[in-house]
Specification:
Layout (H helix, E strand, L loop, with lengths): L1 E6 L4 E8 L3 E9 L1 H4 L7 H23 L8 E7 L3 H18 L3 E5 H11 L7 E6 L4 E8 L2 E7 L5 H11 L6 H9 L23 H14 L4 H26 L4 E5 L6 H13 L3 E3 L3 H4 L4 H12 L23
Parallel strand pairs: 1-4, 4-5, 6-9, 9-10
Antiparallel strand pairs: 1-2, 2-3, 6-7, 7-8
Helix pairs in contact: 2-3, 4-11, 5-6, 5-7, 5-8, 6-8, 7-8, 8-9
The structure holds 5'-O-[(R)-(carboxyoxy)(hydroxy)phosphoryl]adenosine (KG4) and zinc ion.
Length: 333
């Protein structure tokens, strides 16, 4: 089963050809980093325009590198939400046009579910599992009984983990995207020299990173950015410890011994190391995708598309983009 996947929910224009849900024949990710860098974050209108220019060349390169034509594919899967409305529409309209013209089935994909599925592409996770999708737009804690069987336990009440990384990076003058920049600076810092709070909120499954972000802001305002690596290391540690705390608590309360991590922030080395250490101490298996599958890509979209097609779950061409599509629910219009 060969699926063409298309992903344009934020600032990556991506297309991938995936066989049988796991074998990546080609995966093209065209990042718009250079366009958004000087604004310190993604500018939605610029993202939409860039997707429009890039989508056809990216799809063509994907097919060419995989050595296939549209005739060879069984279906087209595209992200329909959540994400930026203008950005989503470009990928979605492209996918639907190909399906209409080539007479192929169309599959609308939830971006967060695709991130969850990315953890299944290189591993065969034990289920049920607790999965945390930590990215620039989402921080979700999900109980998974199977692909398609999700209970959303908690999510961020304000900033997503990656968004907090990006904003603190901007405050420290480290640039965009903030995650990799903070990780690099943190490797030279001492977290105990710039203590920051942990927003554990033990009474809730939800996350909240805006207070931590503000604490970093006040620290910078009061003491300056003289010790940038220390603040970076302290912030990274605070985020990692908070995410790991929630995941471990969810494992205990749901009596689960399998943990998955996905999304751009899942490529953070400190977070992976901490989760690995705490999970293995409790006999819990921890699995996460390799970094190129953590950040936005279309391979995870195509892979999930194969599972959906195998289950007969195709979508109507009338499905439109849903910027707030919650995992496990039907997309709105
Ligand atoms: O999953 P993703 O590519 O896009 C969304 O769905 O949002 O995640 C992008 C986010 C950005 O906020 C970026 O700063 C963060 O992931 N990120 C990282 C790292 N690499 C990317 N955060 C922490 N450490 C990293 N190494
Ligand atoms: Zn994403």
């Amino acid at each position: 089963m060969l699926i063409l996947g298309i992903e344009t929910s934020c600032d990556e224009t991506a297309a991938a050809a995936v066989e049988d849900g796991k074998k990546i024949l080609s995966s093209i990710v065209s990042s718009q980093l250079d366009l958004h860098q000087r604004f310190g974050g993604v500018v939605p209108e610029i993202a939409s325009r860039a997707h429009l220019e890039l989508i056809c060349p990216v799809i063509e390169e994907c097919l060419q590198r995989a050595g296939i034509t549209l005739d060879d594919i069984d279906a087209v899967a595209a992200t329909a939400g959540p994400g930026l409305i203008g950005a989503l529409l470009i990928g979605l309209a492209s996918a639907k046009s190909i399906c209409f013209a080539a007479g192929k089935p169309f599959i609308a994909i939830n971006h967060v579910e695709a991130h969850v599925y990315s953890a299944f592409m290189e591993h065969n996770p034990v289920l049920p599992a607790i999965c945390s999708v930590v990215s620039g737009g989402h921080t979700d804690l999900i109980y998974i009984e199977g692909i398609g069987a999700y209970t959303l336990l908690g999510r961020t009440r304000d900033d997503a983990a990656g968004e907090a990384f990006d904003k603190v990076s901007k405050m420290l003058g480290l640039g965009y995207p903030g995650g990799p920049a903070i990780q690099e600076a943190a490797s030279r810092g001492n977290p105990s020299k710039a203590p920051l709070p942990r927003p554990y909120m033990p009474e809730s499954w939800d996350f909240s990173f805006s207070g931590l972000k503000t604490a970093a802001l006040y620290r910078i305002r009061d003491k300056g950015t003289g010790n940038i690596p220390d603040i970076a290391a302290s912030f990274q540690k605070a985020v990692a410890e908070t995410i790991v705390y929630k995941i471990m608590k969810a494992c205990e309360e749901k009596n689960v011994n399998s943990v998955l991590l996905a999304g751009g922030v899942a490529s953070n080395k400190e977070l992976r190391k901490l989760l690995e250490r705490q999970a293995s101490a409790k006999g819990i298996i921890f699995q996460a995708p390799s970094p190129p599958l953590c950040t936005d890509n279309a391979a995870m979209v195509a892979g999930l598309g194969a599972v959906k097609l195998a289950n007969g779950e195709t979508s109507s061409l009338a499905v439109t983009a849903d910027p707030g599509w919650v995992i496990g629910e039907e997309p709105g219009c």
